[in-house]
Design brief:
Elements lengths: L5 E2 L2 E5 L7 H20 L6 E5 L1 H10 L1 H12 L3 E6 L11 H19 L5 E3 L9 H7 L4 E4 L18 E5 L2 E7 L2 H6 L5 H11 L10 E4 L9 H6 L14 H11 L3 E2 L3 H7 L14 H6 L3 H16 L4 H5 L9 H4 L1 H26 L3 H20 L17 H26 L6 E6 L8 E6 L2 E6 L5 E7 L4 E2 L34 E5 L4 H5 L15 E8 L2 E13 L6 E13 L2 E10 L4 H10 E5 L1 E3 L8 E4 L8 H4 L5 E4 L2 E6 L4 E9 L4 E14 L2 E16 L3 E10 L1
Parallel strand pairs: 1-10, 2-3, 2-9, 3-4, 4-5, 5-6, 6-8
Antiparallel strand pairs: 7-8, 11-12, 12-13, 13-14, 14-15, 16-21, 17-18, 18-19, 19-20, 20-29, 21-28, 22-28, 23-25, 24-27, 25-26, 26-29, 27-28
Helix pairs in contact: 1-3, 15-16, 15-17, 16-17
Length: 722
């Protein structure tokens, strides 16, 4: 009788988002990356498959030569395999096929250059899978992928059957699929090592072709919580079974000392054993992701249902077929995520136009100048495809404002390169302005993009005639990188106090008009917790004028709506006209309204009691300690008044804020036929749950001037960026 054995491939995934803080890279290196690789190096019998996102591998190559030297030594002795994937860790499902292949080939080329290894496997960011993946993975030269065992639940494959690999195909292109073992993932490193060994012994068999794939983020082995201490510090490991020996060396020792545990790389397993059979996997990610992506109210219900089924042994069959949402819905759940994604698609289309022009050109000198710039522009776009800030779950994701800012910075960098190339191709002087009507958000409604060499102003007429993106190109800086304070499922937990978080009813865009009562307090306005008397706050405006003249572009929009009588709530007709003029670094906005009603009593009540407030949110990305603001109307009495992030109100007609880190100033100048203008200023603070617990995260500043109403009202707003 043969001894029972089990193949045990180990995979560690190393990743940092593009443009994450340098101290984070260093902290992760000290706590997890270096000690993990040092320990693996000391156990040459243990074979390991490693994945590095391209930008992190670049960082190691530039800053940690000893780390790279150790990896190369392990490569030479056949101890490690390196797998590929998207260079900047994109979600493949939402980037074009060309970009998928380019990103994978870029990472494979770097690995081949530095380590001499041919890359055969692909890492899927966040384990997001869609059925068409085999085709483009084949085209990129890759032979296998790693997916979550959750992907298999609704295919009819049992838990025992996930101890084998499978083959899948798309358009006749086949791909080997390795399921991750869920039980080991939850045991390691949280439980003593003998529990993993006991589990492996339980699933081992005489035939010897079974495999239990262990995979972990490298950061989980040293960065999360107290993992550094019990993974690497002598005397801090698990007491039960490991006698306080650090987890990682104890774990590697268990593999070395138990001959029936076969340490093997992914490629070695694939070469040694054929697939168990053909399989077709539905669209999937890991189970928590499929919960996080759901709309908030649905997510709360789904979570309750899943818990009941998972915890009840009698409901095991029902649980197999319980599916949540799929990854792409994050682009619906968070309009800010969709904004970044559609901006990326928009910029790359402009770059493709240049490529097509160049293909027709016979000017060799022009081609030699433009080609390197095209490569640089593509790389900026690829960087903007890094997945981390496009979604939200256990980690901050879309709530991490500096990561969103990074996406916009790289996309604006690409735009600037595109502008320079167009200047060369068309012999332009460098100054231009354009107006483009386009369904930018892909919601079947037309948006208006005003783009120049200095500024981008993106307008959504169907969303209350608001500005939703404002790019200052000289600094590659999106001043509308704000985030709406969305309602999340975790906000309803008992331990969260209601006063700790505020929820917005509408996206935090610019020029949203609110018709509010005199008795609305600054606190109510800040919390978006007041009665709205108008239907202009989210109604559709009709574009009635769109023209440009030299360096100037003008958009004019109008909406016929109504305001509620403060007593009867009868609807009183009102017409609002918005005119947006863009010239160089200035935006001139005129808002004109008039009431079309003979109901004098209702009008009298409206004029006596109501105001119109206009949202002017903006975002600063620098060090908050170097934010400051100024108005000519006030002499500040204390530091609290000077603090840009403190709520404040005053009567005045100007506001000026500065981000010293980026040497950038944003100025607002107001005028009106109203007697006085009251200005409210407050921070936009989102309350998010992350791996570090509940956090209040800065998402921008909202400046809201308030104007009294009359039979006709006129508001002038000048915005200046420099």
């Amino acid at each position: 009788m043969n001894e029972k054995t089990i193949n045990f491939p180990l995979v560690f995934h190393f990743h940092q988002p593009i443009d994450n803080f340098e101290w984070v890279f260093e902290d992760c290196y000290i706590k997890a990356y270096k000690p993990l690789i040092d320990n693996i190096f000391n156990y040459p019998e243990v074979k390991v498959t490693l994945h590095f996102s391209g930008n992190l591998l670049e960082w190691f190559l530039k800053n940690k030569p000893e780390f790279i030297k150790k990896l190369k030594a392990m490569t030479k002795r056949g101890q490690i395999e390196l797998i590929g994937g998207g260079y900047y860790e994109p979600i493949f499902a939402i980037i074009p096929t060309r970009d998928k292949i380019a990103q994978m080939k870029k990472l494979s080329a770097l690995i081949k250059k530095e380590f001499g290894l041919d890359v055969k496997g692909a890492w899927l960011s966040e384990r997001v899978w869609e059925p068409n993946y085999p085709t483009f993975l084949n085209e990129a030269g890759l032979k296998y992928v790693i997916v979550d065992d959750n992907h298999f639940r609704s295919t009819g494959i049992s838990e025992e059957d996930t101890l084998y690999t499978y083959i899948t195909e798309d358009e006749g292109k086949s791909l080997r699929v390795f399921p991750i073992n869920e039980q080991i993932r939850y045991l390691t490193p949280w439980k003593p090592t003998y529990l993993t060994v006991d589990y492996l012994r339980k699933i081992a068999d005489e035939k010897g072709d079974r495999m239990a794939l262990f995979i972990s983020d490298a950061e989980k082995m040293g960065v999360w919580g107290s993992t550094h201490e019990f993974c690497y510090v002598e005397g801090k490991g698990h007491w039960d079974g490991d006698n306080k020996k650090p987890f990682i060396p104890a774990f590697l020792e268990q593999i070395t000392n138990n001959d029936w545990i076969k340490s093997i790389t992914m490629s070695e397993y694939m070469e040694k054993y054929s697939a168990k059979g053909l399989i077709y996997i539905p669209t999937a990610s890991y189970d928590k992701m499929e919960e996080w992506v759901l709309p908030t109210e649905i997510r709360k219900s789904f979570n309750k249902i899943r818990k009941k089924l998972k915890d009840n042994p009698k409901k095991k069959e029902e649980y197999l077929f319980l599916k949540g949402g799929f990854w792409r819905y994050f682009l619906v759940k968070y309009p800010e995520s969709n904004n970044m994604h559609k901006k990326m698609l928009h910029v790359r289309e402009k770059l493709i136009l240049i490529e097509e022009l160049l293909k027709k050109s016979k000017d060799d000198a022009l081609i030699s100048v433009i080609k390197p710039e095209i490569v640089n522009a593509w790389d900026e776009i690829y960087k903007a495809q890094c997945n981390d800030c496009y979604w939200h779950g256990m980690f901050g994701g879309v709530y991490l404002q500096f990561l969103r800012f990074s996406v916009y910075t790289h996309l604006i960098n690409a735009e600037k390169l595109i502008d320079e190339m167009n200047d060369t191709i068309y012999s332009r002087t460098g100054s231009f302005i354009s107006i483009t009507p386009i369904d930018f958000n892909k919601d079947s409604k037309m948006d208006i993009l005003i783009e120049s060499d200095v500024i981008n102003v993106y307008i959504n007429p169907s969303e209350a005639g608001t500005i939703f993106e404002l790019d200052y190109k000289p600094k590659s800086y999106n001043l509308l990188n704000t985030l709406t304070r969305w309602h999340e499922a975790y906000h309803d937990k008992e331990k969260v106090q209601e006063e700790e978080f505020m929820i917005d009813r509408y996206r935090r865009s610019m020029l949203r008009m609110r018709f509010i009562h005199d008795d609305v307090s600054p606190e109510q306005l800040e919390a978006d917790d007041y009665f709205e008397f108008g239907d202009f706050v989210d109604g559709e405006f009709k574009v009635i004028k769109s023209e440009k003249d030299g360096k100037m572009a003008i958009i004019e929009m109008e909406k016929v709506g109504s305001i509620k009588d403060t007593i009867t709530k009868d609807l009183i007709p009102c017409i609002v006209n918005k005119k947006i003029l863009v010239e160089e670094n200035k935006i001139l906005i005129s808002i004109n309204g008039r009431f079309d009603s003979k109901n004098d009593n209702a009008l009298k009540r409206i004029f006596q009691n109501l105001n119109v407030a206009v949202d002017l949110p903006f975002f600063f990305n620098g060090n908050p300690e170097k934010f400051n603001w100024y108005t000519s109307e006030l002499d500040f009495k204390d530091n609290k008044e000077k603090d840009l992030l403190e709520s404040f109100q005053y009567f005045g007609s100007d506001f000026r804020a500065r981000d010293e880190t980026y040497d950038l100033t944003f100025e607002i100048i107001l005028s009106s036929n109203s007697d006085e203008i009251k200005i409210y200023k407050f921070p936009i603070i989102a309350f998010a749950y992350t791996d570090e617990g509940y956090k209040k995260i800065f998402q921008g500043i909202n400046v809201t001037p308030r104007f009294k109403l009359d039979k006709s009202f006129e508001i002038e707003i000048q915005l200046k960026i420099e």
